[in-house]
Amino acid sequence: MLSLDDPHWSDLQHAYGSARDIPALLRQLADLPSSENDKEPWHSIWSSLAHQGDVYSASFAAVPHIIQVLASNPLRADVSYFQFPAWVEVCRAKSDVSIPENLAPDYFDSLSRLPTLVAAASSRHWDEGFLRVALSAVAAAKGQPAIAEAVLELSPEVAGKFMDWFYEG
Q1: Is 114 inside a domain boundary?
Q2: What pairs with residue 159 in β-bridges?
Q3: Reported pTM
Q4: I need a surface site. Which of 18, 84, 107, 168 has the fewest CB within 10 A?
């Protein structure tokens, strides 16, 4: 995993240019701050690294750090720690974005940890929103980005409409 002190972050890109500011944002995640109500550092992480469905070289360097923080306490981590890595993978696959060769192994290794981390969070309360994100994280980790994206959209209302459509056939 690219060290947060590595000067290579300046060579990576995010939505607004050089990613030299991303290590400072990732360091702020150490205490598992909430992402509720667009709180920082999550607001800046999302807007820089997964901007309107676009992902960047720095997105792939950041995911292993976010998953490492998630692994420190999956029972306490909020929804963004699970959703962000899944969404980056969904966007990567949809846009066919290439991952820099030096970042790909750590990126995919970290994604492979998501199913275990979802399982580790199984004793916490899961509302339907967290359920969708958890299922999406597992699908993304297992190489199913289209399913990961669909599950994120599958609210109870949408699921009901889908089942009605499915059984009409």
Answers
A1: yes
A2: none
A3: 0.94
A4: 168
In this structure, the number of other CB atoms found within 10 A of the CB of residue 1 comes to 17
Residue 149 lies in a domain: yes
Dump pLDDT digits (tens) for 53-97: 999 999 999 999 999 999 999 999 999 999 999 999 999 999 999
DSSP 3-state assignment of 17?
A: strand
Going by C-beta distance under 8 Å and a sequence separation of 6 or more, which residues neighbour residue 149? 90, 94, 136
| Owning domain of residue 79 | 7-168
Cβ neighbours, 10 Å, residue 66: 21
Total count of domains within the chain: 1
Nearest of 74, 68, 149, 88 to residue 118 by alpha carbon? 74
**Cα(46)–Cα(49) distance, integer angstroms:** 5
Q: Are strands 50-51 and 13-14 parallel, antiparallel or unpaired?
A: unpaired
Separation of alpha carbons 166 and 147, rounded Å: 16
Sign of CA dihedral 92, 93, 99, 104: positive
Which amino acid is residue 151, in one-letter code?
V
Q: How far is CA 23 from CA 3, 18, 90, 117, 125, in A?
A: 9, 12, 23, 23, 31
DSSP-based three-state secondary structure for 89: helix
Answer yes or no: are the C-beta atoms of 160 and 133 closer than 8 Å.
no
